[in-house]
Amino acid sequence: MTAASGTRDRSTDWWRDAVVYQVYPRSFADSDGDGLGDIPGLISRLDHLQELGVDAVWISPFYSSPLHDGGYDVADYRSIDSRLGSLADVDALIEQAHARDIRIIMDIVPNHTSSEHPWFVEALASEPGSAAWDRYIVREGRGPDRETPPNNWRSVFHGRGWSHVRDTEGNPTGYWYLHLFDTTQPDLNWDNPEVRAEFRDILRFWFDRGIDGFRIDVAHGLVKEEGLPDFDYSAEDEGARADMFDEDLAHSPFWDQDGVHEIYRDWRRVADEYEPPRIFCGETWVPNPVRLARYQRPDELHTSFNFDYLMAGWDADRMRRSIDETIAQHAAVGAPPTWVLSNHDVVRHRTRLAPGFDNETRLTCEVDDERGLARARAATLFTMALPGSMYLYQGEELGLPEVRDLSPDDRQDPAWHRSGGTDGTRDGCRVPIPWSGTTPSYGFGPADASWLPQPADWADLTVDSELGVEGSTLEFYRSALRTRRAEDSLGEGLLAWLDAPEGVLAFTRPGTESGVTVVLNLTDAPVHLPNSWGTSVLVESGDEVAVLDDDGREHLVIGGETAVWLRA
Ligand code: TEU
Predict the structure, then answer these.
(1) Does the CB atom of residue 181 touch ligand 1 within 6 A?
(2) pLDDT of residue 548
(3) Among 48, 14, 20, which residue's Cα sits nearest to residue 343?
């Protein structure tokens, strides 16, 4: 077991059990009324994050960008999109966050640049085979007219993964460039030393300004298999792949290649030059916890997102298996696990965990929204007590549901357009945050404007309407995070399962004197808890905790779809 939180050096080890809050900056707070959230808006809302009790903020990209993929298409890694702010604003953000003891994690996008990045503009103006093109992945087409792409790779956002390199007149040249995402996101060639040097320099540029770390976008994708062989998509085509977790993808020629690890060893050396050392969190969609833990070896990334757990759904056995595997694999490399339930790419967990939710028909299926909220709160409370660090996504502390009825015209996810409206539904979790008031934009900005429309019925989900209201989701998050911080046994450490009835998960966190028992009832029926688990409630996700008199002895009963932390 690693040292109890109290004995660690918090200045360097803070990330091992941090609660990190993700800000999607365009949707967080708008200071100037243009309908787009911005950095001054974020600064003006730092008090909310401090009072919520988070340790760090991870901010999705705010670099100069044509915003074809919400800023994950970066045109200049050292400047800020003028609609979102300036370098001076970022400096102020770092200073003001640090003054509140909140760390800043930026988002770096190394798999691809924007097609408006000067490197790609330079490549387009030069001949294939030039040094400018060698920064990207460009190949001759197949067939007599070179009209067939170099291989069969597809874009994650649908359609083919290659586009024509065109001459200045717009005619195809017979060469193609790779883009695993949108056509406006050409993949970089990480075999090129200039690419490696440039990113080391970008890391230093931001570390020197005082940021505490980076989340690495598509961290598993940078290196492609030698020779760029075709990929057998049959498992996917048969529908076997609901997500990126099909075992076959372990052998994909574009994800999770062994060569990526050398890049992160190099980056780790850069991060370790700083005092305190800067940290990394990888966005690693890999098939299982075994592959995931490889990224957390001691000289690589500090942490990575654990998407296996996010995909486990509302299923006691699958959750428990995922937790056990994750803890075991991370222990083997000496890294703390991380846990996440929502982010800007997935359906918000209030909706995703709701009875009736079906991923295939996610926009139209009937869901039980109230039970969805109960389950989301229960899952969150349970997850916050797991060993390691936790990621929260903006708005989950308000209980926001997925917005599923955005009109096709409002949708901006590039995958929506590339799939002909059958996929790419990520806008529904990116609807701007409601802060106050009873009509859109609910205090998001000084004007009514918001880049995605907010639902008419969000008046009860604003920060102002939940603040100070007993039982509100916001007050629930605040009290859970306060308790998590105060309890020595939470955060990093051990987990011991307790024998529990079918559909109930219960564990303690041994190793400290005053322990906590954590119980999640996934069934829809109340469950009686043995007194040996503890009788005094620290935090509960629902209001159905009751003390019953049974055989002359008092004990606790928690409602269906509820979680509780007890003093063990
Ligand atoms: O996501 C990487 C990624 O693989 C996602 O496409 C993911 O598979 C999908 O969204 C799951 O629904 C990152 C960013 O988080 C995402 O917002 C970007 O669009 C993408 O990279 C490209 O930069």
Answers:
(1) yes
(2) 62
(3) 20
3-state secondary structure 251-264: HCCCCCCCCHHHHH
Left if phi > 0, otherwise alpha if psi is -120 to 50, otherwise beta: which for 26?
alpha
Question: Of 484, 517, 487, which is closest to residue 500 (Cα–Cα)?
Answer: 517
Ligand 1 probe mutation, 181, 188, 246, 391, most atoms within 8 A of CB: 181
The span from the CA of 203 to the CA of 201, in Å, is 5
- Yes or no: say if 381 and 354 are a contact pair by the CB < 8 Å rule: no
CB 422 within 8 A of CB 362: no
- Span 526-542, pLDDT tens digits: 999 999 999 899 999 99
pLDDT at 183: 98
Query: Is 244 touching ligand 1 by the criterion CB < 6 Å?
Result: yes
Q: Classify residue 131 by its DSSP letter.
A: T
Q: Is the minimum distance from the CB of 72 to ligand 1 under 6 angstroms?
A: yes
Going by C-alpha positions, the residue among 16, 111, 29 that lies closest to residue 55 is 16
Alpha-carbon span 376 to 373, nearest angstrom: 5
**Residue found by looking up tokens 């490889």 in the block:** 294
**CATH number for region 118-178:** 3.90.400.10
**CA–CA distance, 164 with 279 (Å, rounded to integer):** 38
- For the chain, the structural domain boundaries read 14-113+192-229+244-477, 118-178, 494-567
Q: Which residues of the chain have pLDDT under 50?
A: 1-6, 240-246, 248-249
Whether 243 is catalytic: no
Contacts of 504 (CB under 8 A, 6+ apart): 316, 519, 520, 521, 522, 523, 527
Selection from 480, 446, 468, 478 nearest residue 565 by Cα: 480
Domain with residues 494-567, CATH architecture: Sandwich (2.60)
Q: What are phi and psi of 57, to 5 degrees?
A: -120, 130
**CB distance 66 to 79 below 8 Å:** no
Distance (Å) of CA 187 to CA 158, 215, 267, 483: 16, 18, 19, 44
What is 14-113+192-229+244-477's CATH topology? TIM Barrel (3.20.20)
The tokens describing 138, both together, are: 């460009």
pLDDT of the residue at 6: 46
Categorise residue 158: left if φ over 0, alpha if ψ from -120 to 50, beta otherwise.
left
Q: Give residues with Cβ within 8 angstroms of 527, minimum separation 6.
A: 501, 504, 521, 557, 558, 560
